[in-house]
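Predict fold of Peptide methionine sulfoxide reductase MsrA; 216 aa.
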Amino acid sequence: MKRSILYIALLLMSFGCANAQEQDETLVRVPAVKAGKAVATFASGCFWASQEAMSELKGVEQVIAGYSGGKLPNPSYADVCTEETGHAEAVQVYYDPKVISYEQLVTAFFYAHDPTTLNRQGPDEGTSYRSAIFYRTPAEKEVIQKVIKEVNASKHYKGPIVTQVAAYNAFYGGEAYHQGYYREHQDRGYIRTVSVPKVMKMRKAVPELLKPEFKK
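Predicted 3D structure, encoded as tokens:
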């Protein structure tokens, strides 16, 4: 996976002197969907910001950071970083469809990152950082295509959306230390300079979809 000088500098600022032995690398269990609730799977670059952004939306009850879109079962972060698994860093969003619709989630997703850059988000480059939505039904696919047309027509972005729209296959939970990383490491350079701007971008774009505590 290609790494820019900026990426390496920010990564060092993010992890500091931490090493693998100081992090809980247990792969988290992916919960089942509760009765009356729904689930959606998105990829929009580094899942630290993605997990935070989607968790701030009304009706969203849980967001798991993990991997989707590839063929290797139960991949680790190290596996995905090889760019050989086909997986993208992704989030699985558990939500109440009576409070927020799938279309609203998809709309927020498109404003929580840059969906016009192919296999890249800021300093992060590679297919594991691609923009993707994994639909579960033909109806969800139609919603995604509808929203893409609307966002493109709005000219919010200078270029067209290049987000991959693919059928959902599987989602695998990421390591425990990745869960909630954004909130637990606000002092890290990568979070301050890469993750926070993405979350703020979504807040500004869809304030009506935010939980009350994030409407500022």
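Helices lie at 5-15, 47-55, 77-81, 102-111, 138-154, 181-184, 189-205.
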